[in-house]
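Subject: Protein record for review, amino acid sequence with backbone structure tokens
How to read it: Take the token row as a discrete description of the fold.
Enclosed: The protein record, placed directly beneath this head.
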Amino acid sequence: MASQPADPPPSLSPAPPPALPPADAARRRFATLRTVLALVLREMSTRYGRTPGGYAWSILEPLGAILVLSIGFSLLIRTPSLGHSFLLFYATGYLPFDMYQSISNAVARAINFSRPLLLYPAVTWLDAVLARFLLNSLTSVVVSVLLLGGILAVIGHRATLDMVPMVEATGLAMILGLGVGTLNCALSGLFPIWEVAWSIITRPLFLASGILYIYEDLPEIARTILWFNPLMHISGIMRSGFYPTYVATYASPLYVLGVSLVLMALGQVLLGRYHREILNA
């Protein structure tokens, strides 16, 4: 009897093809950057484009504050604590403070400002925070450069400038504003009364940040207390770049950086955990 032919071996099923990347992978690679840029352009059009004068108010407001301080104190005292120009002395103290304040206030309201857009999955709370931080930081830097450059040209300041402490103070003011603003964004979203409480708590900050004086002019007990104010360090570092004979030995950039990073980390943890509750409130 003829043997039956052996059954052919079962054919191996072909391996499934590798998963293809999504068609829009290349587009989504820079999704965060495009989203942040779109939010920046949106805020530029809504905040400055619809206001008479636009960006001119960003320059006129700090200029007016510096002029009022300079004229007022020039009637009371003969010379400022450093140099001979009231304009330069108060500008080097006020502009870093104004930079911190504008960035922290803008970042603290990031979620409320972009609340309708945050309902879309492509827009996150981090995009809103970064957009407001970048726009206000760039605006404050441009305003500071224009005002300080104009003041130096008007008063004929001939001393050698040190750019390192200027850049250092500017960077510290920016990161401190981001840290405080991020934490306040979370706290004001969770506790609406916090925004009012914070504005009351920080009202004396203008007088306690070294705008009207230098750290060395204070009595010992005041120096001990105000050393813990990061803005006091920032104003001292900024002035050391404009006055070659002034050395802010008390200023600690590491202290300011540490405070800023701790506040930023706390704010990010709270926003990461409770941002949905804040949006739905």
